[in-house]
Design a protein that fits this description.
The structure is a homodimer. Chain A is of the alpha+beta class. Chain A has helices at 50-55, 113-118, 120-123, 127-149, 188-198, 235-256, 258-263, 280-291, 303-317, 368-377, 388-395, 408-416; strands at residues 15-28, 31-38, 41-47, 64-73, 81-92, 153-154, 160-161, 173-176, 179-183, 200-208, 221-230, 277-279, 321-325, 327-328, 345-346, 348-353, 356-362, 401-407. The radius of gyration of chain A is 26 Å and the shape is elongated.
C-alpha cells in the first residue's frame, strides 16, 4: 500500500512503501540520500545497504521507483521525517541526464522563458512550478463556486463558427468540410443569446486570437471566463458581480494557499470589500496631475496609467483592484450600450488588478432597433447570415444585460506576481510558439 | 426589489415586483391571465384592470416586462400562487410572433431536430429544454467535485497544435501565421506528459473531429472529459476510478434533480456500487448464445451488442453501466499497453451506459523503448518534431498510467434518455450544421 509523501510522518517507527520519481541524489558521510517526489511533495530516503545503493548506479533524476523503509523523525528532511534502511525497486529506469534541473527554485527571467517553455514537460516536474498551476486550478474552482451560488448556468458554446461574426480581422480561418469557418475569439454573441433562456450564464473555455504579436500580455490561445447576466438595473450591478467574484476568489486563494503563495514570493494581498471605481476621465486627470504627463486627450488608458491607478488605489484606498469605467464612445463596440446620461461615453468598465487589465465588463444594448442602428453605424451587414440568430434573440425579447470577458491566465499571472501571462499557462501559444 | 418566481408564494398577501418574459397569454372569464417566465420558472399574473390589459395589446410572447401585484394562493397556478390586481411595465416590447412556440412540452422527434436546432435560440426559452442543460451543468459540477476530492489537478492544454501528432486523418487544419496547424482531437499526448508532473490530471474542454458524418452519435465539436492518472498498479484501478466517478455523478444528479429528470421522462436509474466488467470475448459469446447472431469473429463490439450487454447487465446484475474490457490487439493505438497475460488483447476498456459507449479507458505503455517500438510498428515517424516532447516525457520517467476520454455530451444524452447526442448540446456541429 503506497503512502504519499505528506503522510509519511504519521508512520514514525513503522515500515512504509512509497513510490515516486528520483528527484535528487547525494552522498553525505558515506550514506546515500535521495529525494523521492510524488504528487504531494518529497520524501527523503537514506540508503545504507550497499546492494541498494548499487541499484541506483547510472540512474538519473526522473527514474521511477518504489522504496520501503522505516520512518524516522528528522526535522531537516522535507515533511519532518525520512525513510531509513530503505529497499528500492526501480520501476522505470532513466539513464540519460535530463537537459534541465528540476529541483531548483524557479527563476522566470524574461530571457530564460523560451528555454523554459521548450522544456516545459520537464520544467513542470519542478514542485515550485507546479504550485502555479495548483493555484490556477484552485482559482477556477472558487470562481465556479461563486458563480454557481449566484445561479449562473455553466454553458459550452461552439468554437467553430460560420463567420467572424463579432468582427475583427484577427481570427483563425479553417476549412470546414469545404466551407470556410473561423475559430471563436470569444463566446460573445452566444452568451448574449443565452441570456434569453437562462438569464445568467458563464463559460470557461479556450478563445483563439490570431494576433501577430509576442508581448507579455498576449497569446493566440487563452483561457477566458465569460459571464453574462440579464435583468440588471444598471451597469454597477454587473461591475459589482464581477468585482465581488474576484474578491471572493482572491481571498479564498490567499487563505487556502497561503504557504504556496509565500514560497512563490507572491505580493501581499491588498483589497477591500468593494472594488473602487474611477471613470477613465478621472484617471486621466489624476494621472496628469500626479505625473505631469498629459493624458487628458487620450481616448483609452495608456499602460502606465493602468499601473499608476492600481498603485494609487492600493495606497489611498487599500485596493489593488480597480474598475476603470465610462470609456469614450469612440472606443465602443456595436453591442455596447451608450451611456444615456452622457452619450460621449459607453457603459463599459475594465477590471484592473496590480496594473493589468484582467476583464472587460460592459453593459449591452438590448433593444433590437437600437442594436441594428449601432451595427449599421459600425459598418456591419445586418443581413449577413452570421448575425441572423443573434438578432433573432433581440427581436424576440432580451432584457437589459451585461457581463465580462475575463482573462484567467492574466488573473493567475497577477495573483502570483509573475511578469508574463505565458508563465501562468501550461503550454503557451504565440506567433513564435506552437509546441510543445 | 425583484422577487423571483420560486419565491412568490412566500409573500402571500403582500405586494411583490416581478420581472421576466411574457410566456403565455390567455383570456378566461373576462380576465387576462399571463405567465411570466424568469430563471427559476413561471409566475401566473391575473390582470383585471382594462388599462393594464391594454398595455399588452399587440405584444407577443418574449416581451420583457415587470409586474407588481398582490400575491394570492392559487393551487392551480405554477408555484401555487399568483399575482392579482397587477400593474404592468413593458420593458422590451416584442411585436412579431415568434416562429416557434416555447411553452409546450418538448418533442425531440428525429425528423424535427433540424428545425429545433435552427431555432435553438428560441427553443432554449422552453423551460423543459432548459432542464437538460441545467442537468448537464450539474453533472459537470459533480464530476469536478469527485475529481478534486481524488486529487486530480484541472489542466488546460492547447487546442492549436503543430501537428496531427496523435494520428488519424480526421483533423481540422488551419493556417497559423503562415505555418500549418491542426485543431486538437483530444488532449491525449498532453495529459500523458503531465502525469510526469502532477500524477493525476483532468481537463474538460472542446475537442474537434473532422468526421464527415451526421449520425446520432457523432459531432465535429464535442465536450470531452479527459482524465489521466499515474502510479496505478493495474488496469482495474483506472476502470474503477472512472466507474466510481460515473456512479457518483449519476447518483448525485438523480438525487438533486429528481423532479426535473422525471418531468423529462428520464429512465429510472439502475446501478450498483461497482460497474461490472466483461471482456469483449465474453460479450461476443453471451450475445451469440442469446441472439443466434454469431459475433465471435468480430474484433470490435457491434452497436447492437453494446445495447444488448447493457440490457443484460441491467436485468441480471442491476447495472446499466458496463465495462467492456480486453479489446483485441488489432484495434490497439500506439499508446495502449498490450495485456502482458494475453498479448492478443490490449488493456483497454470501454464504459457503456444504457447501450452507448460513453468513455474509452486504456492503460498506457509507459516504457520509452516499448513505446518507440509500438509507434514504429504503427507506422509513425518517431523522429517527427510532433512527438519530440511526448517522447521526452517517457525518456525521463513516466510511471504506469491510464485514463479516459469521456464524452460529456453522451453522458448527458443517456442520463436523460435522449436519442441523439446533439439534443444534449447547446449548439451542435456536424457536417451539415455550422450555425447558430
Amino acid at each position: 500500500m503506497r503512502v504519499l509523501s505528506s503522510e509519511v510522518k504519521k508512520h514514525v517507527g513503522q515500515s512504509v512503501h512509497i513510490e515516486g520519481w528520483l528527484h535528487k541524489k547525494r552522498l553525505l558521510g558515506g550514506l546515500t540520500f535521495i529525494n523521492v517526489r510524488d504528487r504531494r511533495g518529497l520524501v527523503q530516503v537514506v540508503i545504507q545497504d550497499k546492494a541498494e545503493v548499487e541499484k541506483l548506479r547510472g540512474l538519473q533524476v526522473g527514474t521511477v521507483l518504489a522504496a520501503t523503509g522505516t520512518v524516522k523523525e528528522e526535522p531537516r528532511a522535507p515533511g519532518g521525517a525520512e525513510l531509513h534502511d530503505a529497499k528500492l525497486t526501480v520501476l522505470v529506469p532513466v539513464t540519460d541526464e535530463p537537459p534541465i534541473e528540476v529541483d531548483k527554485p524557479i527563476q522566470h527571467k524574461a530571457e530564460n522563458l523560451d528555454t523554459l517553455f521548450e522544456h516545459r514537460v520537464l520544467n513542470l516536474r519542478n514542485l515550485q512550478e507546479q504550485k502555479i498551476f495548483k493555484i490556477r486550478a484552485a482559482q477556477l474552482r472558487y470562481i465556479r463556486e461563486f458563480l454557481t451560488d449566484h445561479e449562473f448556468v455553466e454553458i459550452q458554446t461552439p468554437k467553430l463558427l460560420a463567420e467572424a461574426a463579432e468582427g475583427g480581422a484577427e481570427v483563425f480561418k479553417l476549412d470546414y468540410f469545404g466551407q470556410e469557418a473561423t475559430l471563436a475569439q470569444s463566446p460573445q454573441l452566444y452568451k448574449q443569446m443565452l441570456v434569453g433562456a437562462f438569464e445568467r450564464v458563464y463559460e470557461i473555455a479556450p478563445a483563439f486570437r490570431a494576433e501577430p504579436s509576442a508581448t507579455t500580455r498576449h497569446m493566440s490561445e487563452v483561457t477566458m471566463l465569460d459571464i453574462e447576466m440579464g435583468f440588471v438595473q444598471n451597469h454597477d450591478e454587473v461591475l459589482d458581480m464581477v468585482g465581488d467574484m474576484t474578491i471572493h476568489t482572491l481571498r479564498q486563494v490567499y487563505k487556502e494557499h497561503a504557504d504556496d503563495l509565500k514560497s512563490l514570493n507572491a505580493p501581499e494581498l491588498v483589497i477591500t470589500d468593494k472594488v473602487p471605481k474611477f471613470t477613465v476621465a478621472e484617471i486621466h486627470k489624476k494621472y496628469t496631475a500626479a505625473t505631469g504627463t498629459d493624458t487628458t486627450q487620450e481616448k483609452d488608458l495608456i499602460p502606465d496609467e493602468e499601473r499608476w491607478i492600481c498603485e494609487y488605489a492600493r495606497k489611498e484606498l487599500g485596493s489593488e483592484l480597480v474598475f476603470a469605467t465610462d470609456f469614450p464612445v469612440e472606443a465602443m463596440k456595436f453591442y455596447h450600450q451608450i451611456n444615456p446620461e452622457d452619450p460621449t461615453t459607453v457603459l463599459w468598465g475594465d477590471l484592473l488588478f496590480r496594473g493589468l487589465e484582467i476583464a472587460t465588463c460592459p453593459l449591452r444594448e438590448n433593444h433590437y432597433d437600437k442594436l441594428v442602428e449601432q451595427m449599421k453605424k459600425a459598418g456591419l451587414d445586418v443581413d449577413h447570415p452570421g448575425y441572423k440568430h443573434y438578432l433573432q434573440a433581440f427581436k424576440y425579447g432580451l432584457p437589459q444585460h451585461g457581463g465580462c470577458g475575463y482573462g484567467i491566465d492574466r488573473l493567475v499571472e497577477k495573483t502570483i506576481g509573475l511578469n508574463n501571462v505565458k508563465e501562468a499557462t501550461l503550454f503557451p501559444r504565440d506567433i513564435n510558439r506552437l509546441s510543445p
